[in-house]
Write a structure and sequence with these properties.
The protein has 4 helices and no strands. By secondary structure, the protein is an all-alpha fold. It has one domain. α1 runs antiparallel to α3. The longest helix is centred in the last third of the chain and has 34 residues. The chain is elongated and about 55 Å long. It starts with a helix and ends with a helix.
């Protein structure tokens, strides 16, 4: 029972960390830097606030790494209830995390021409 409680507490802490970090890169950053329909102004905002944009990349990367850990922790936590459903949920969450990692690459593709060009 002690092991399950430790796993549950670790999962809860990681989810809370995500809940604090994720809104910065998913809500605040786009509202601050992106101008819908105006790529030039958006590029100028990103260039002018490069540190803020890079901080958004770091926060997304932290959330991505936490998601990977949560896949394993939640599988272990839910396996005693139903092994098959726990495995399906872990694979679904892992698939979502892979997509999140691919989306993280888009930030680098945006930053690359602005910094080098």
């Amino acid at each position: 029972m002690n092991s399950i409680q430790k796993t549950a507490k670790t999962s809860a802490v990681l989810i809370l960390i995500m809940a604090v970090i994720a809104p910065f890169s998913m809500i605040y950053l786009p509202a601050t830097l992106i101008v819908p329909g105006d790529a030039t102004t958006t590029a100028n905002h990103i260039t002018a606030s490069e540190r803020l944009f890079r901080l958004g990349i770091v926060s997304d990367a932290i959330v991505f790494l936490i998601e990977i850990g949560l896949c394993a922790l939640l599988y272990v936590l839910l396996k005693p209830v139903n092994k098959t459903l726990s495995l399906v949920a872990a694979f679904a969450r892992l698939a979502m995390t892979v997509m999140q990692g691919i989306n993280l690459l888009n930030h680098f593709f945006v930053l690359l021409p602005l910094v080098t060009g």
